[in-house]
Design a protein that fits this description.
two-stranded antiparallel ribbon, about 575 residues
Length: about 575
């Protein structure tokens, strides 16, 4: 803590060093040239192959330009934005009128939102709402019956894992399996497959179970210490962390509040995920972290992001290339461009989906964690990437999976359990399991290096080198390094070496992330050999080298962004 505070003080108000300033000019110039090349080649590819691609529709933003709407998730949200806006607008207006008029607290607001949400789900799932309510009700009963037992975690995980898998295997079940007299209900299955949304319901059911299980246990969270450090809590407001760790009375764990939490309309389809305790706390006292002005600005930023997505899909057909399979016959350079474009498309797509629903939740007084707090192009470590990609799911995994399994004490083993669960939670596909296990393989060296770096600081390395015969005395004299000024050496030469090693490690990490995500979401495990053959060929090696240098430059640019942020704090 003291070191961290001292570092912040050192950064605050300090000026950028001359060599770093020159480096920054070079990095920005390189990045500008890189994106000019990427954009020009992407435009050329879209123009040359436009007639061979499928899923392109007439565009509206640019005359005579087609629009890439091949991604099903994006196409569905894009087509339903007007309807969802009207529905959530009506729900919001009614809820905000009824809360003050009837002076509603947790119980009253949970009933109001439960009625709204049941109406919403009846349209989405039709008669299949019976499956949702039945599974949720049994889960509630299991929690209430077994919460005080030592084997409760086994009960709750077994029950929820069973339905997580079975829902996918049986594609949401048919009513006819319960008897032909119920077969007619299969004609009223709604407009949206219930078992797809139910993955999020499973996370909420587990959250409710463990929050109830832990309600009387001593928390390791120091609220007083947190309030002294947290800028939001210092101002008299309540941050998400404080809400999540606050104590709830037993009557707040009621069936109506539980169902309201599971089915809360603005967050039902795609999240973000928040814990039961954070949700129930905000039913009584709506979030006060974000002012009306800030929420409105959040909405305008979402509209700007939507326009950016429309511009991207009108000009660059990355997703259509990935779905068509044409990229298999392209050069390594073009494969890299399409792969990089697909990852950026995915990031922007999920940002729009999650922020749309979070916006409506904020208006209704429920704050959920921001799922995409950082840009995909501003993450240079796997740990940093996963903290900022579907961040609310990451917080959920840490709270309900990672820490109960032993946390950082068993980190190298826990990542395998966590990512395997993440893959199964997404879908039962081998390519997703391949993605999960590849990510774990890439994660282990990073975790090992970080642990080693923390245990054996740079100054210890320098001290060892200076005391041994590894470093000649002439070199010691040249750098004016003496044993009694090791700290000075660390802050100059040591910092430079550490920075370079970190940049190389960042480049390796970004390359690994690209490979893992391409295997998981584009080419599948069968495409690994083909990908290696393409980039390890005579034509592919120069592209691989240029790609690595680009990621190295990008990582160093990220360092400058982090340092600029610290100086401004």
């Amino acid at each position: 803590m003291g070191t961290s505070a001292a570092n912040k003080e050192n950064f605050k108000g300090s000026r950028i060093e001359p060599w770093k300033q020159k480096e920054l000019y070079f990095l920005v110039t390189y990045a500008f040239v890189f994106y000019v090349i990427i954009i020009r080649r992407s435009l050329q590819l879209s123009h040359d192959y436009g007639k061979q691609l499928f899923g392109l529709r007439p565009g509206w933003l640019i005359p005579r330009q087609l629009n890439d709407v091949t991604d099903a998730q994006w196409r569905n949200l894009r087509g339903n934005i007007p309807v969802l806006t009207v529905v959530f607008g009506i729900f919001t207006l009614l809820a905000n009128l009824m809360r003050p008029f009837f002076n509603l607290k947790v119980g009253g607001m949970s009933i109001i939102w439960l009625l709204f949400s049941l109406t919403y789900l009846s349209y989405l799932h039709g008669a299949c709402i019976i499956f949702v309510l039945s599974i949720a009700t049994v889960n509630f009963l299991l929690v209430k019956i077994f919460a005080q037992k030592k084997y409760f975690p086994l009960v709750i995980w077994s029950y929820n894992s069973f339905f997580l898998v079975c829902n996918r295997i049986y594609e949401g079940y048919s009513f006819s399996i319960f008897g032909q007299q119920w077969a007619f209900l299969d004609n009223f299955r709604g407009t949206f497959r219930w078992h797809i949304c139910f993955n999020f319901v499973v996370l909420r059911m587990i959250s409710f179970g463990f929050d109830y299980h832990w309600r009387n246990q001593d928390s390791h969270f120091d609220m007083e210490k947190h309030c002294k450090r947290c800028l939001i809590c210092k101002s008299g407001k309540s941050c998400y962390q404080a809400l999540q760790e606050s104590r709830l009375q037993n009557d707040k764990f009621s069936y109506t509040t539980y169902l309201c939490y599971l089915l809360y309309a603005p967050l039902y389809i795609a999240g973000p995920i928040l814990s039961f305790k954070a949700f129930a706390s905000q039913l009584e006292v709506p979030q006060n972290t974000h002012s009306v002005k800030n929420v409105a600005l959040y909405g305008f930023r979402w509209l700007f992001s939507l326009l950016l997505m429309e511009l991207m899909t009108h000009l660059f057909y990355y997703n259509s290339f990935a779905n068509s399979g044409l990229w298999k016959h392209m050069s390594p350079m073009d494969i890299f461009i399409i792969g990089y474009g697909v990852l950026n498309f995915m990031w922007l797509k999920f940002l729009l989906i999650w922020r749309f629903f979070r916006f409506w939740s904020l208006i209704n007084g429920i704050e959920a964690p921001e799922n995409m707090p950082k840009c995909i192009n501003n993450c240079h470590s796997l740990e940093d990437f996963w903290k900022n990609w579907h961040a609310s799911f990451n917080k959920w995994l840490v709270r309900y999976v990672y820490i109960p399994l032993g946390g950082s004490q068993k980190k190298l083993l826990n990542v395998w359990v966590v990512f395997t669960f993440v893959a199964i939670w997404h879908d039962l596909e081998w390519k997703l399991l391949s993605w999960a296990w590849l990510t774990c393989l890439f994660f282990i060296p990073e975790l090992a290096l970080k642990s080693a770096a923390n245990a054996f600081q740079v100054k210890h390395i320098l001290a060892f080198l200076l005391q041994s015969s590894i470093v000649p005395k002439s070199l010691i004299f040249l750098f004016d390094i003496k044993l009694n000024v090791v700290h000075q050496a660390e802050s100059s030469f040591g910092e430079f070496i550490f920075r370079e090693i970190s940049a190389v490690a960042g480049a390796i990490t970004i390359t690994s992330l690209m490979v893992a995500n391409l295997v998981g979401f584009v080419i599948g495990p069968k495409g690994i050999n083909w990908l290696l053959d393409s980039f390890l060929s005579k034509e592919g090696l120069p592209v691989l080298g240029a790609m690595f240098i680009t990621f190295y430059v990008g990582t160093k640019l990220m360092f400058h962004i982090e340092e600029a942020r610290k100086r401004s704090c």
